[in-house]
């Protein structure tokens, strides 16, 4: 299953932008946030994959769970991942048992799209999907575009409705990773426009990252925090302590979490 590993080109990005009805920075924004610029291929030219043992187990009705527990198991277990090139032996072993189920149970390429989504990506069967994933990052991007269109997400990208897109694409827990705010910040950087001052919604808590956390850190510094926080967008222990101290000083519940009440008190 070796791949040719051709990289993404400006023409690929332009084609994707035209298909989605957006500008090129929007396409690059989603790729940057979703993939971390990891690329769609390994150094040896094979597509970057992640084999999902729980999906293979489900697709094969648990037939191989007892005899092959490293590649067929319920429920999902992070410890089964080998990562990088180590995912390929897992896929190949599963393919020797049930090729179609194995290919459908791996995520592929730039956007790590599951093979089981091949129809949504514009492919008749999983074999043609995998052939495209092996060919180039351009074909991987085409599949991603097809998936976005199939799922009705293109209008949200055209409107740059980042929160709505994040909710549909990543699920209701998107806010825990400030996914929408990362999209907004990356787009602003790529397009050369000021980042919007997004309202604080939901909760900000330890472990979160992004523009909303930077705004929180700037607000705390603006209230005379000493020593001032490093404005790095990382809600770590120091930022949590600063929030707790602010809450105590204002007579608020001291939990280190920035919810609506604390956000209003901070002027966010």
UniProtKB/TrEMBL annotation:
Superkingdom as given in the UniProt entry? Bacteria
Q: Which residues form the N-acetylmuramidase domain?
A: 24-189
InterPro entries per record? Muramidase (IPR024408), Peptidoglycan-bd-like (IPR002477), PGBD-like_sf (IPR036365), PGBDSf (IPR036366)
Q: Where are the transmembrane segments?
A: none
Query: Gene3D superfamilies under this entry?
Result: PGBD-like superfamily/PGBD (1.10.101.10)
Indicate the segments forming the Peptidoglycan binding-like domain, all copies: 210-266
Q: What is this protein called?
A: Putative peptidoglycan binding domain-containing protein
């Amino acid at each position: 299953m070796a791949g040719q590993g051709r990289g993404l080109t400006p023409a690929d990005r332009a084609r994707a932008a035209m298909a989605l009805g957006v500008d090129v920075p929007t396409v690059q924004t989603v790729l940057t946030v979703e993939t971390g610029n990891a690329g769609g291929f390994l150094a040896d030219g094979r597509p970057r994959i992640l084999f999902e043992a729980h999906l293979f187990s489900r697709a094969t009705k648990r037939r191989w769970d007892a005899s092959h527990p490293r590649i067929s198991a319920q429920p999902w277990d992070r410890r089964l991942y080998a990562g990088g090139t180590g995912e390929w032996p897992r896929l190949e072993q599963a393919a020797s048992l049930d090729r179609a189920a194995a290919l459908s149970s791996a995520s592929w390429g730039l956007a790590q799209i599951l093979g089981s989504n091949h129809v949504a990506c514009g492919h008749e069967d999983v074999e043609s999907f995998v052939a495209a994933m092996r060919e180039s990052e351009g074909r991987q991007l085409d599949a991603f575009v097809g998936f976005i269109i199939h799922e009705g997400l293109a209008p949200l990208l055209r409107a740059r409705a980042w929160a709505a897109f994040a909710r549909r694409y990543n699920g209701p827990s998107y806010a825990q990773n400030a996914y929408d705010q990362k999209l907004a910040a990356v787009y602003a950087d790529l397009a050369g426009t000021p980042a919007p001052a997004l309202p604080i919604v939901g909760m900000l808590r330890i472990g979160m990252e992004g523009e909303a956390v930077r705004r929180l850190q700037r607000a705390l510094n603006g209230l005379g925090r000493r020593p001032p926080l490093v404005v790095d967008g990382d809600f770590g222990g120091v930022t949590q302590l600063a929030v707790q101290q602010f809450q105590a000083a204002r007579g608020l519940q001291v939990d280190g979490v920035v919810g609506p009440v604390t956000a209003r008190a901070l002027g966010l």
